[in-house]
Request: fold
Amino acid sequence: MKAAPEAQQRLLDLQDLDTALDRLTHRRRTLPELAEIERLDARLAELGDVVVSAETDVADLDREQSKAEQDVEQVRQRADRDQKRLDSGQVTSAKDLENLQSEIASLQRRQSALEEVVLEIMERYEAAEGRLSSLVEERSAAQTELTALAERRDAAAREIDDEMGVTSAARTAVAKDIPDDLLALYEKLRGQFGVGAAALHRGQCQGCHLALNTTDLNRIRAAAADEVIRCEECRRILVRTAESGL
Reply:
């Protein structure tokens, strides 16, 4: 393949722009905010499940406390009724009085026991409510942090996209200076190796960074200026420059 030396030189400019685009693409794909966003998304999903579980615990304990308080109130009302009967003097039989007093004492013990249950449930409720509050605060903080990270990610991505736009426009302009067949070969090699064209610098290929032997250097010296040279080691297009050492 033949191409004007100037066109071959432009391959190096094109490769520089493609390398810059590759770096920008890598930067965009590996923004540090992306990993943090992924971590926070996972934590928020986990917190969502935990908060639902904590809300269920609080609701269950609230119902349990209401039930226990109702039990206390029922026993208290029954004890109050018995106490009123006792105080009214309506019960005159010694045996009935003894039974009534015994029942009042039993109800009072029962009330005391139920009140202990209520206090125990209240303590569990307060602990569950505190845990729920803490989880909700953590979820809110994580959501705030996620929003801030998304904003930073978007700002960084826009900056990279702008730079990629400028670089892509420059690449399009450079590509117009290169013959179609040479450009097609370059694109094919770049797809295979990442780098399609490299300079020959002081007898060394800048693509594979290997020094050429004397035979290859002599072959290149003897080649016409418009001959497209390939590195014998990496098969990339080898562009001769004033620094080639020929």
User: Anything to note?
Assistant: The CA atoms of residues 1 and 228 lie 6 Å apart.
